[in-house]
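Comment thread on ticket #2218

A.B. wrote:
> Attaching the input chain for the structure job we discussed in standup.
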Amino acid sequence: MSGIPRQASSFQLLSIAKQETDTNVALDKLVETAKSDKELFKAEMEGFKQLVAKFSSSKGKETIDWEKIRPPPEHMVVKQSSLPKVTESQIKNLGDKLVVLKLNGGLGTTMGCTGPKSVIEVRSDSTFLDLTVEQIKELNAHYGSKIPLILMNSFNTHSDTLNVISKYKGMENVHIENFNQSRFPRILKESLLPLAPDALGDKEHWYPPGHGDVYRAFYNSGLLDKLIKEGKEYVFVSNIDNLGATVDFGIVEWMESGQIDFVMEVTDKTRSDVKGGTLIEYEGKPKLFEIAQCPPNKVDEFKSIKKFKIFNTNNLWVRLSAIKKLVEENQMRDVDVIVNYKKACGKDVIQLETACGAAIQFFDNAKGVNVPRSRFLPVKSTSDLLVVQSNLYNLKDGHLMMSPKRAYPSVPLVNLGAEFKKVSDFQARFKSIPDILELDQLTISGDVWVGSHVTLKGTVIIVANHGNRIDIPDGSVLENKVISGNLRILDH
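C.D. wrote:
> Ran it. Output below, let me know if you need it in another format.
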């Protein structure tokens, strides 16, 4: 009886090996059909082959041994407040070594918009991209530095982004460079063969493979070598929709003085962050641990804020020479793969992706820095949009800063229903953004319309049941209110 599992295992291994071979042959044929940038496309497909191999070899296996997980020791994650202060002269020197890279591959479809998410207006008629450019412009003007802004686009956002950034052409103290992240083929779930028949195929056959591709794509673009030759040494990487991700020269100075190659910004977990990836110590090294890697019977423990107290903001600081080494020595071949199951062209397909924070384990001297929550201000939905457009924040030089009139630093929990999901519907249903300086929690669901100059305080819940409508009149003040049914409030 003992031989049966071994025979089954051997058969399974042969099957996996054949699938990999068939996939690689199909990918080589795709490369042959490329009409332009053939060498770049070939390099991308080599990276994709590694993802497929990693996925195939890890199917059915636990990638994390729960018993080996340790909370990061104090020397691995330090408080930002403990970092040394920097002088203006130091900042000028550090600025000349710094590059700011924004991950700009996402579309605004989740919020009902077409085109790059970075061109959604988020504050005072300014887009995510406008605010980022304003920050870089003011930094360079103030310190006399030459920090370039680099945008990593996807094939979904690249052409539109090039059109948009033409409006910044000639703007003083702003230099923008672009590169495209890789374009990977969706693969059929059963055979692992690419859905695309050729390199020119329908967009639905392809996908941008997550922000973990930034290192290889940055290298393949030629921009990495160009910047190193220009004397640049560090890059600050963050999502373009995180309005809290601004340059902090204290972190750059810490990296320089401590010969640190990689820094991940983490912040304290709250009950609304239960799914965020956390930083752990694993076999003596820092490692990003995602909920997808968690054994099913440990998910509740993962979500607990008692055991895992911090999460990854995806604000990363990396030494450029270390990225070059990472790619040239092919160190990311063992990176953890994120598997997304999708439907495309009516077929079950797989997208293999990676996270840029997962690279932390491959750098020689990597650290975490625990930053205030203010450095994590992503806008993923209209619920987030309500918060950043409100009087909770003041805008200066492209930076959003919490109003001193807010009595406590926490951000209110806002949950807007499906009727508010699209930006156009959100704008139509709010005559103006309410005063939320004293708001703790807001839930709105159903056919609800909010007038102008409304004030919300404490916990406010407004639910219009199916077939009903609720109108909140201009000037209403709602404090610790639950409103449901089919109502029109007449007094305030």
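A.B. wrote:
> Thanks. Noting for the ticket: The domain at 382-485 is CATH 2.160.10.10 (UDP N-Acetylglucosamine Acyltransferase; domain 1).
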